[in-house]
Amino acid sequence: MGYTLAMIGCGVMGQAVLSAIYNAPKAESLEEKTRFPAKIIASNYDEESAKLVTDLINGFSESPNGIVVESTWGKNEEVVEEAQVIFLGVKPFVVNEVMEPLIEKVSGKLLISICAGWTIESLSKYSNQVSRIMTNTPAKYGYGCAVVSHSPQVSISQKQIVKQLISQVGKYVELPEKNMDAATALVGSGPAFVLLMLESLMESGIKMGIPLKESKECAMKVMEGTIKMVEESGQHPSVLKHQVCTPGGTTIAGLCVMEDKGVKSGIIRGVEEASIVSAKLGKK
Question: pTM (2 decimals)?
Answer without folding.
Answer: 0.85
